[in-house]
Each structure stands twice: as structure tokens, then as C-alpha cells.
Write a structure and sequence with these properties.
It is built from 12 helices and 14 strands. It is of the alpha/beta class. It has 2 domains: 151 residues, Rossmann fold (3-Layer(aba) Sandwich), CATH 3.40.50; 132 residues, Rossmann fold. Helix 1 packs parallel to helix 6. The chain starts with a strand and ends with a helix.
Length: 309
Amino acid sequence: MARDCRVNDTSGASFRDNGRLLRSARNMILLCFTVMCSFAVLLGSAEAARIVSLYPGHTDNIIALGLGDSIVAVSQNDDLDSAPGASRLPSRVTPEAILALKPDIVFTRSLNERADPNRAIILERAGVAVYTIDPPSWNGFEDYLALLSEILGLDPESAKRRFREIIEGVRDEAAQHDGVRPRVFLEATSKELRTCAPDSWAASLIELAGGVNAASGAKPLRDGSPLASWGVERTIETVKSGLDIYLVQQGAMNAATMEDITRRPWSDALKSVRIEFIPESYLSRPSLLGIEKGSAVLLDMFYGSEKDG
């Protein structure tokens, strides 16, 4: 009963089932949901499933949906406190190593699959359900949660409702500060000084918490990319035009520290602004846990001084 459902972008993407490309997102969603409901019935209950998650975003959302105890393995890129009892698997993990864990379901993303195209085929032949789902956009997150919930035998409406409640809670908290909206520039990568694309997860979360994206005019590197080029000269101009917070995203894409920033030839331009840091997983990883953690950090960053005063 193994199936490979691939989602390029759950906000309105095409899906492929057993190699057949279906361009109608609506029809494929219905097909995927039917397959997944059948699979959930075969498992008997979501709690009985043994889950391997090869993408941290999927891991976070599975935990947030209450099935963290079902996760038997995660990727080495997952946060250290994610599924503490689960095995840690390298990015190029072999299908044999996964099969040794006796999983029922494997969640992955197309980036992982491209590294080893045969892995999913071998797992499926062994009777393991493999679901390749790429990180969703902000606008596609509800559909993603519904899809994930269906696979896990959970109520999709309950998952979507939780997402909406979290969003409303953050929005209400930000609205309590008399319309104060700090102007924020995000350094997503120090290489070529890239920022976040206007429609990215990071930009959406900053705006949700009450911030104003100072690089809202940035153009994505390519269609669907969360990154956008900005450059040093435009960054200096942005600071001079009136900036409150220079926000540095730290993680796999950007390892810059305060010491690194102060060593930059143009660092004097940042003396008039507040430099802050935030983990990449809090700001750019599409997940319920990411929204909760990231928004809490941003709200404190944007308005903490008001509370203290």
C-alpha cells in the first residue's frame, strides 16, 4: 500500500503519484487524501505508526500535532531537543539503515530525494509509505497541515484551527502596542548579503509580530525562493533611511556572529541601529513550533523594552 505523494508547493502545486504527473491540484489533493485515509485505516491508529522524518519542518509539525512519541528517527539537521529518544540519521542515509528501524511512514522532501533517487523506490518495495512533501509557503501552510494530518490519521480541521489560533494570538499581542511597528532588516545570509523575499516565511512572521520589512521591495532569487539579493550598498541605504533593528538569522545559511559583523568594513553604518540575532529554525522553518518560538522571540525583541518600562 506504499505510495509516493510529492508536493512541490501545497499552496497550489502539482502532485505526482507513482510517477504520474497530475496538474490539477484539487483532484490530486482528493486522491492523496483518499490514499492516506486508506493507509491510516491499515495502520489502525496514528499512535501505532513508526515514523521517520528526514526534514526538520516535518518533525516539528508532527510533534506539534501530538505524535512526537511515534517518531523513531530524524535527520541530523533537526534541533537537538526534537524527539530526544529518536535516532539521528545523516542526510545521505541508506534505505537499509532506514528499514532497520522498521518504519511505517517516511517523511522527506524533494531536496533529500534528489541526493538518492532510488531510496524511496527501495523503501516502497519493502512496504514503507514514503511521502515527499516540500516546505510550504505561508499561504499554503493550512493545506500542508491538512495533508500531514490526513496522512497521520488526525483531524485536519483541528490542525488548521490551531494554526489560526496561534496566528490570531500573535496578531493580538502585537496590536497591544499602540501601532508601534519597528522597521526591520533581515540578514538571511552574509554571503552576497541576502535578505528574505517579501512572500517568504521569515518576512511573513516578522510582519505578523508587528515588524515592518525594510526590504519589502526585494526580488526573490528565483520563483518561490525564500531569499532575495540586497547587497551592501542597498543595506547601508536602508539603514540611513531609518532602521530600528538589524536582524541576523543564524543557522545553516548564516553563521555570522556579532564579532563577524563588527569586523565588516561597513560596520560603522550599523552603529545607529540595534543588532539582534534569531535562530534560523525559529524564523524560516515552516512549522507550528517555529511560529510559536519565533513569534515569542520577535515580540520580546520588538516590544520587550516597553514592558520593562
